[in-house]
Amino acid sequence: MTTMANMEDHPAPPGAPAERAGPAESGVEATRLSLIEAGLKLFGSKGFEASSTREIARTADANIASIGYHFGGKEGLRLACAQHVASHIWKIASAAAALARFPQDDNSPSPDQARAAVLTFAGAMVRGILGDERTLPMIDFVIREIANPSPTLDMVYRSVIDPMHRRVCGLWGLATGRDGESEAVRLAVFAAIGQIMYFRIAREIILRRMDWSGYDEAAIAAIAGEVVACVEASLDRLSPGGRTGEAS
């Protein structure tokens, strides 16, 4: 069975700024964060090439020269945006892992403990992603990067997606008695992540169909319940005696 990687072994990428400027922060740091937030918004909605530095500066209410000062240019801002996204998503995942009491490698859990950790983690990720409005432009930014792969996407993949996915796959494998790096487990984890991301990406469609005015606590709790139920069914399917297309 593949050894699980600790999330602590893969710290969020350095260089990401504080997510919200506090009153004690300098104007320089506040400007840097405003430019990153403007970059996320415009790169995510219009794309990198279609977003001009002039428009980014105007959106951030900053001088156009500040982009070069803080980031060396538009490409540097793109990387800073990616670091910001990676840092924020890592914090959400780390908080979810802590809530789920993810075990250390030298203290492997029983299948029941691993299963409970996976289910708790799934619910916590739903609440972390959907309950934080700051993730909206971040997800749009990542979708744009996925559609047009660049070294920026590679950085997000290496620093957040790959280590987090491997960690959950390891637990998933312990919960089902399978190799955490098997194709079936890796796909099952991606399917679970896909469900969570859909509820963020398709928010406006879901709100219309559900007659919700927004993702309030009740709505998020209902979504989390559905996602956790789907994850539980997937764990059952891959566990001994379950029905799956891949041999154990």
Structural commentary:
By secondary structure, this protein is mainly alpha-helical. Helix content is 68%, strand content 0%. It has helices spanning 27-46, 53-60, 65-71, 74-99, 111-130, 135-147, 151-176, 183-201, 203-210, 217-238. The protein is elongated and about 60 Å long. The relative contact order is 0.13.
The helix-and-strand class reads mainly alpha
**Fraction of residues in H or I helices:** 55-70%
Average pLDDT metric: 87
Shape: elongated
Order of helices and strands: HHHHHHHHHH
Q: What would a concise description of this structure say?
A:
This protein is an all-alpha fold and about 250 residues long.
Which secondary structure elements does this structure contain, and how are they paired or packed?
Blueprint: H1 27-46, H2 53-60, H3 65-71, H4 74-99, H5 111-130, H6 135-147, H7 151-176, H8 183-201, H9 203-210, H10 217-238
Key features?
248 residues; 0% strand; mainly alpha; single chain; Tetracycline Repressor, domain 2
